[in-house]
Amino acid sequence: MFFLAQIHGFVIHSSIRNLQKTQRSDHHLHVSSSSTDVETLTNNLAKLKKVISREYITFFDPMETQYYANDVTFDDPMTSLSGVQSYKNNVDMLASRTLLGKILFQDAGIVLHNISGGLVNDDGSIQDIVTRWTLKMTFKILPWCPTARFTGISVYKVVKDTTAAGVSIVKQQDYWDSINILPNSGGAYQTVDKGKAVNDFIGQISPGGFTAKEAAPELPYQLLRRGDGYEVRMYPSHTGLKLPYKRRDEGFGSLGAFTKGMSPLGPAIMDVQADDVSDKYMMWPLTYAKPGEKEAPIPKDAVEKAGEGQWRTMKVVTVPQSVVAVREFTDASMEPVVRKADRELRALLDRDGLKASQNSEDLVRFAQYDAIFSMGRRRGEVWIELAEDGHPWN
After folding, report:
1. Does residue 213 sit in helix, strand or coil?
2. Contacts of residue 42, Cβ cutoff 8 Å, sequence gap at least 6
3. pLDDT per residue as tens digits for the range 151-168
4. Which secondary structure element, helix H or strand E, spans residue 113, and what is its range?
5. Which neighbouring-strand residues pair with 242?
6. CB of 250 closer than 8 Å to CB of 182
7. For 42, what's the count of Cα atoms within 13 Å in the CB-facing half-sphere?
8. Cα dihedral angle (85, 90, 92, 98), rounded to 10 degrees?
9. Using CA atoms, how far apart are residues 314 and 254, in angstroms rounded to an integer?
């Protein structure tokens, strides 16, 4: 979860497997093994998970303090807090509900991707509750107004008690995907030195250099992970205009002529087959599914033109919602650069326990955001779609 600026909370003691094992504190009350008590406890834990979900949606406005022990503790890679009031004060600051928060931040928000755990074991003990989330905040106090983004998990240690809620959160530990994932562990987490967290944070808010102009507004996505060397994103269903090409400048020219008067999106997405003999394809996104929509709108003007006359090689395609791993590169999108980035991304996915979709190695997919021949720091990316069972954000 978060709590940066005191900023962000929570350190995991060992691997995710240990986090989800039963833990009982010294003051954990004995849980009766009777079916009635287990059912009551199960219902109370289900309510608690709904409370946690609701707090994420509202950014803790209000924070339901009756579900937290007075001496609850919080730890993350950068800081430690103790006491429910300290927790509430920190969240209120991040959400700009305090004077200091109004000075420092804007547009802070947290997205809950999933919540798990909180089950009652056979011996009556309670499994930890684990959430996956994305946090962002903009530092308006800095002239360039940088936005810092964090993804990771929060682990809640919960005990049975005699309050009206029947259960209390006594400890929360957070860690970040960017620094706390243990390499070659299948995605387990470990504690790291706080200096590493500080460097990660400063790296995000430091001013950038001169960047190349974007060719078009970017296709929106939901950030699922900001990992070490890569990101994982969920893209909505979208339609695009696709054509085979030999030279990228010619592909850009043809698509630009076709979409004149339309509003294409970025990036330009290229597929190059691994055999280096098959056709290469370029696609420009045109429309996308808005929240609440399952499929992207069909651009009728594009459908009417594509496949006819001078546009005979073009077609409108629909891309379903997908989870994509991405690695950025800043050199020009030459073949050696792109293929190297693709190999590096595959190694990173294997390191962190993520699985590429079947047959993904048959092609190299890369994206170009900047206008062709533009000056400045370029933004290119290689993309690898993840298998449905190859990531934890289902």
Report:
1. coil
2. 119, 120
3. 999 999 999 999 999 999
4. strand 105-117
5. 283, 315
6. no
7. 12
8. 100
9. 9
DSSP β-bridge partners for residue 241: 284, 316
Tokens of 349: 């996915």
Q: What would the two tokens of residue 25 be? A: 């504190």
Say how far apart CA 7 and CA 98 lie, in whole Å. 15
Kindly report, residue by residue over 370-391, the tens digit of the pLDDT: 877 677 678 999 999 999 999 9
Nearby residues of 3 by Cβ (< 8 Å), 6 or more positions away: 9, 10, 74, 76, 79, 81, 87, 90, 91, 94, 174
- DSSP labels, 45-72: HHHHHHHHHHHHHHTSSS--GGGEEEEE
Two structure tokens written together for 231: 């990101």
pTM here?
0.89
Q: Which domains does the chain have, with CATH numbers?
A: 16-202 (3.10.450.50), 222-385 (3.20.80.10)
Helix ranges, 160-243 (H): 194-205
- How many whole angstroms separate alpha carbon 354 and alpha carbon 394? 13
